Amino acid sequence: MRGRTRKSSRITNEMQNSWNPNMRILGIETSCDETGIAIYDSEQGLLADALHSQIALHADYGGVVPELASRDHVRKTLPLIRQVLADANCTADDINGIAFTAGPGLVGALLVGCAIGRSLAWAWDVPAVEVHHMEGHLLAPLLEDDAPAFPFVALLVSGGHTLLVAVKGVGEYEILGDTLDDAAGEAFDKTAKLLGLDYPGGPALAKLAESGDPTRFRFPRPMTNRPGLDFSFSGLKTFAVNTVSENTDTPQKIRRASCRERV
Q1: pLDDT score at 183
Q2: Where residue 253 falls among pLDDT bands split at 50, 70, 90?
Q3: Which of 1, 106, 113, 195 could form a disulfide with 30 if both were Cys (CB 3.0 to 4.6 A apart)?
């Protein structure tokens, strides 16, 4: 797919047949460890949204446990939908369609959002549309007041994904660069765990690194001497392991700053 234009159409025939220029869409996101619900109006913009984080649920395990994540989505999704409907002063009759994350993500977590989204769409007699997780990230800036104009280039750093994408229009994308191994977020999280930081370690590592010395250690800059725009982060993890083992007396904040500066 790299270097090729990919056209993507997520609008179903049912959605096209029932399309009107003024729509209110209920969005459901359950791809990993957060339950996100929102109502978007094509004329008024974002009417209401709610987000539930599972950080406390997974903290004791040092990472996301898929089965626990799925069960928590089961508990939280419908209450959040009721909350968002109330916050937006809407009822089911005001909803013209339902959009839900179809992947990539944790299979069980995605199934929760899919099952609830399609069930509500059937019960409310409105169309349901699948949304690609990465496509949602690419197009989210269009919701901002100063939305970018097509075409634009997006750096997508989300969980296990690190992509550089040329966004030529809705549904038309060209991947310019991709990670060959780990993603940037994984490099942060695994290095943080190595340094004994609590979950989620990535944000904690980034915050602590602000008070460190980024010049104390010379971490490598992967892929800078190769053609293309691909990424690689596995070597940084190995270098971090070796740096920690060889410099046990060096303050951790210095090591954190050096690693973050390279990522």
Answers
A1: 86
A2: low
A3: 113
**pLDDT exceeds cutoff 60 at 3:** no
Report the alpha-carbon distance of residue 88 to residue 191 in Å, rounded: 41
Q: How far apart are CA 233 and CA 140, in angstroms?
A: 26
Instruction: Find out whether 153 and 206 touch, Cβ atoms under 8 Å.
Output: no
Distance from C-alpha of 198 to C-alpha of 169, rounded to nearest angstrom: 40
Higher pLDDT, 197 or 67: 67
SS in 3 state form for the chain?
CECCEEECCCCCHHHHHCCCCCCEEEEEECCCCEEEEEEEECCCEEEEEEEEECHHHHHHHCCCCHHHHHHHHHHHHHHHHHHHHHHCCCCHHHCCEEEEEEECCCHHHHHHHHHHHHHHHHHHCCCEEEEEHHHHHHHHHHHCCCCCCCCEEEEEEECCEEEEEEEEECCEEEEEEEECCCCHHHHHHHHHHHCCCCCCHHHHHHHHHCCCCCCCCCCCCCCCCCCCCCECCHHHHHHHHHHHHHCCCCCHHHHHHHHHHHC
pTM of the model: 0.82
pLDDT tens digits for range 139-154: 999 988 899 999 999 9
Mean pLDDT score, 6-19: 50
Pairing of strands 24-29, 128-132: unpaired
